[in-house]
Specification:
The structure is a homodimer of 469-residue chains. Chain A is of the alpha+beta class and 469 residues long. The first copy, chain A, folds into 2 domains: 3-204 and 375-463, Aminopeptidase, CATH 3.40.630.10; 206-260 and 306-373, Alpha-Beta Plaits. Chain A contains 14 helices and 18 strands. In chain A, strands 1, 2, 3, 6, 7, 8, 15, 16 and 17 form a 9-stranded mixed beta sheet that branches. In chain A, helix 1 runs antiparallel to helix 14.
């Protein structure tokens, strides 16, 4: 069948069945699958079962609800197309769990009673990630309706613990390695750069997290009696933290930038072309002005350069009024965002060396490494990326952009490292859809264009050949 | 009567009546007069009434339990000696309230069941300040027994709110100004420098307390998404706090030292002669080494030089694990210890100016002035001090030392400023008697010598003439 005709048929199918598709999504959204709250354990089961039954309706011969020590995983495999046993295999990853809903009183309508207003669907999980997961199911249905079969092999891996850092997915990745074989992983759990700008995310920063404890006197001391002779752990910590950046906003840890791969001129040019209003950005987050590393634009600093942030600090008295003490200890939580080819373990070592060399001998210290995650990038030039870009261009009627995210999605680098396959982050949410916050919603216009783009993407991959990197 | 005979009579009297005196003190210590706990309001009344009845037994014609909006004050006035209407008036200040007793399980014997072990009396309040108050009452009784009358006019002002910053005493000082007229105020609520070294405290540091709030984005931001462009309030605060001291340990606030009166060579020499082991001091408080302002000894830094300490710091995430945020705010509590002639209000202004000039324009800030107290010193050369020193020398058999305290006793500078009279801080406690902690105790040997010294002091003042400064 001709590509253009197939696209048109899928488009017509999606339009004709939109009400049913949205009803199915609303039913999915009604399940309060909050992974972090033990009281919702049954809802987690219900959401997984609901997804599984939907996948069976779609004709997947293999559909499993896989128990874990936490919430179940849903896995489905369409098997290879009957007429093409060597067709490419696409793995679609997503998650059915959602964030808690407090503060409840700030929701205009209840979080688990989805409603459609202004062509947006409002509910917890609408944008992150039940809406996008549902798009994938609907796109597969439309694809099958348009061409009579699935022209690629599809595997779906939908987990229930993404919002709590996927503690049991990693075990599964190791155990079920064979089952997960594929040619490309596609994930719709990121956002478009802005309304009207279809986007593919080509990079995520990695992370290193640690804690610094400065240990002073055996117990809190009276700051009147002892003030003037005892090193105050808060002073020591403040000086140490202040030493972590230089006057140009660079991280002042020897060797920190050694493995940083410079941004390519083409990437910098592409990012420079993206609309970005520093004034509007400042207003949105409520700061008088931006700061950061000299010589780089804000997008470059957020997406392509490493950072060291203190995420929390505490020590001594925090109550009302005054308590005149020199505290026994002071503490800071730090995280670094890492870019290729920085290694979390090496960064931990460099930081510890800096701490050890900078602290005075008047205190003791402890440095605890808490977590690490590798940065991830993929080339916009990769054939799977180019095919996705062409599909987006076609269905959104606008040139897609390759963006990065400053955050880390540990599961992406884990999947990349475990499966050794390219990952395409094809996001249809918008940055202001209030994920993790009251009044989360999802724009139906992007859902419609997105479903079409997914069908177009699969048709393009089926027309192949696509050679892996 | 001859001085030597009077002293001997008083000594004999105190020895003969020691059991009764200690029984009375034990009864006083049995009253759980914890000023900060509302559940003990009745105990506060009982303690005040107990003191008042004891003062009436001593023959004071004026004894009042004065209600306040908080706990009552006890005031007594002996009136002038019948044979000497122009005798000096001595005001004795003390307090009958005590600190809470937790952690209760660390007491070897219950805090309100006083026991005598190893010639020490153990109970909450034994050293701070019921024991010393009781010494004064017993010394007056012995004085009267020895010479047949009180040869000076005595006023006693014993409050019940010292441990909670004397909130209602200040009002009373203003209202009862006339009633409080005196020539000298004597307070026994400080410690001796060390066992065997009778001490007079000739100076207290003042205090300035404030809070610094650094205000960044409107709410916590994701440190992955925004890291690299938004000024982190914790970083800004750390840099500000680090800027408050220079490499020589001096407070780096322009003008901070302008009003600091240099220590006199005689005072520095006297302090240099005091026994002080830096090693033992470090071991006691559990630090590897001391720190502080270059060019001054530890005692000089604690007693005679001003400080700026951060007493508490907080911002962002303090829980288990990691939360990847750039916090909206960061906060620090600071106090300065001040020495003559620094003024708390001026210090507040200088600090605020330094903050304003040092903070980047990427954040906002708030600076809150919380409390202030003037430093206080008196000259060891003052006749009231010399008479006290002579009495100590005589009864302890060792040369007394003039020490200072690094802490602040706001009531001392308040009394000094309100009454305009010299204050003699004649302390009989020891530094390690665990005041405010489990197993508080008071050494009976110092109590005995101290009661004799008080009698000797009053006899010396009665022999006068003593000219005020």
């Amino acid at each position: 069948m001709e590509y253009a005709l197939a696209i048109q048929k899928a488009r017509d199918y999606l339009a004709a069945h939109e009400d049913r598709i949205l009803q199915g999504l609303q039913e999915f959204l009604r399940i309060a699958s909050i992974s972090t709250l033990p009281a919702h354990a049954q809802d987690m089961e219900r959401a997984a079962t609901y997804l599984a039954s939907r996948l069976r309706e779609l004709g997947f011969p293999v559909v499993k609800v896989i128990p874990t020590a936490g919430h179940p995983l849903v896995f489905a495999d369409s098997g290879p197309p009957a007429d093409n046993p060597t067709a490419l295999t696409v793995m679609i990853y997503g998650h059915y769990d959602v964030q808690p809903v407090d503060p409840l009183d700030q929701w205009e309508t209840p979080p688990f009673e989805p409603v459609i207003r202004d062509d947006r669907i409002y509910a917890r999980g609408a944008s992150d990630d039940k809406g996008p997961v549902w798009m994938h199911l609907a796109a597969l249905e439309a694809l099958r309706a348009a061409v009579g079969r699935l022209p690629l092999r599809f595997k779906l891996l939908i987990e229930g613990e993404e919002e709590i850092s996927s503690p049991h997915l990693y075990t599964y990745l190791l155990e079920a390695r064979g089952e997960l074989d594929c040619d490309v992983v596609v994930i719709s759990d990121t956002a478009m750069y802005a309304p009207g700008i279809p986007s593919i995310c080509s990079g995520l920063r990695g992370i290193f997290a640690g804690q610094i404890d400065i240990i002073g006197p055996a117990h809190d001391l009276h700051s009147g009696v002892y003030g003037g002779v005892v090193a105050n752990p808060i002073h020591v910590l403040a000086e140490l933290l202040a030493s972590f950046h230089d006057a140009d906003g660079r991280v002042n840890i020897p060797g920190f930038y050694d493995s940083v791969r410079p941004l390519s001129p083409s990437e910098r040019e592409a990012w420079a072309r993206l609309p970005f209003s520093e004034t509007a950005f400042c207003e949105e987050i409520g700061v008088p002005a931006l700061t950061g590393e000299k010589g780089f634009s804000p997008l470059e600093r957020m997406w392509g350069r490493p950072t060291l942030e203190v995420n929390g600090i505490w020590g001594g008295f925090q109550g009302e009024g005054t308590k005149t003490i020199i505290p026994a200890t002071a503490h800071a939580k730090i995280t670094c965002r890492l870019v290729p080819d920085q290694d979390p373990a090496k960064i931990a070592r460099l930081i510890e060396e800096a701490i050890a060399s900078r602290l005075p001998r008047t205190v003791r210290y402890r440095f605890t490494v808490m977590e690490g995650g590798h940065p991830w990038t993929t080339s916009p030039e990769h054939p799977y990326m180019k095919a996705a870009a062409a599909a987006l261009q076609e269905c959104f009627g606008a040139a897609p952009v390759f963006i990065r995210m400053g955050g880390s999605i540990p599961i992406v680098s884990a999947l990349a490292r475990q499966l050794g396959k390219p990952i395409v982050l094809l996001g249809f949410s918008l940055p202001n859809e209030r994920i993790h916050a009251p009044n989360e919603h999802f724009h139906l216009a992007n859902m419609r264009c997105g479903m079409q783009a997914l069908v177009a993407y699969w048709l393009r991959l089926a027309a192949g050949p696509v050679s892996a990197e």
